[in-house]
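Reading a protein record of the kind used here takes only a little practice. The record below shows the convention in full:
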Amino acid sequence: MPSAVAVPIRQRMIELRQQGKSYRAIAEALGQSRHSVRQICRRWSQGGDSALTPDYQRCGHGGIRAERLIWRAAIYLKRCHPDWGGGIIRVQLQQRWPQQQIASERTLQR
């Protein structure tokens, strides 16, 4: 994942865009991708100067989203039954905790 664009560079993008420069010209001048320039300018037009700060909370892995007990049970089942896939582990968890929302098969595979 690429690193966030620094706020001074974001501000310079907006200045150049207000001067009528194209996304491509701004990208070349600042060494950024055209997509990044377009996204940042779009965010600024929708949210103003406060939208120029990076959304660090949206970056990276969000951690465990399931209840910790269910997550630990899934790990335990996989260790006890290494040949089981995500599908059978999900079925086992659903049978044990029918009232809880269980992660998808793909999530359990990961």
